Amino acid sequence: MMEAQAAEQDEMLWSLLRAHQQRAEFTRRMAEREKTRDRSGLAAQLHARSKEYEADAEVIQSILERRRVATTDNGTSKEEGNGEETAN
């Protein structure tokens, strides 16, 4: 049951990571578009928002990296996120 919960948490974190990365890219493109339309104020706001999404994505990614390899009770390492087990 705990493994199922951990797998579900990982799935949610990966989904959240992708969402933040996509939001960052989208707002970055919007900022560039507004910049070409001489709307520098709006472009700056969008650029700042993009940086916030990138920072959030980096936090999520670091959490996933820390969770990536978990040692199980029987001495094997489980690669969380893909379900593969390897011997230590």
Question: What are the SSEs and their pairings?
Answer:
Blueprint: H1 2-36, H2 40-68, E1 69-71, E2 76-79, E3 84-87
Antiparallel strand pairs: 1-2, 2-3
Helix pairs in contact: 1-2
Keywords:
single chain; alpha+beta; rod-shaped; disordered C terminus
Q: What would you say about this model in short?
A:
By secondary structure, the chain is α+β, with helices and mostly antiparallel strands. It contains 2 helices and 3 strands; from the N terminus they run H-H-E-E-E.
Give a verbal description of the structure.
The chain has 88 residues and is α+β, with helices and mostly antiparallel strands. It has one domain (2-87). It is built from two helices and three strands. Strands 1-2-3 form a three-stranded antiparallel β-sheet. Helix 1 (2-36) runs antiparallel to helix 2 (40-68). The radius of gyration is 18 Å and the shape is rod-shaped.
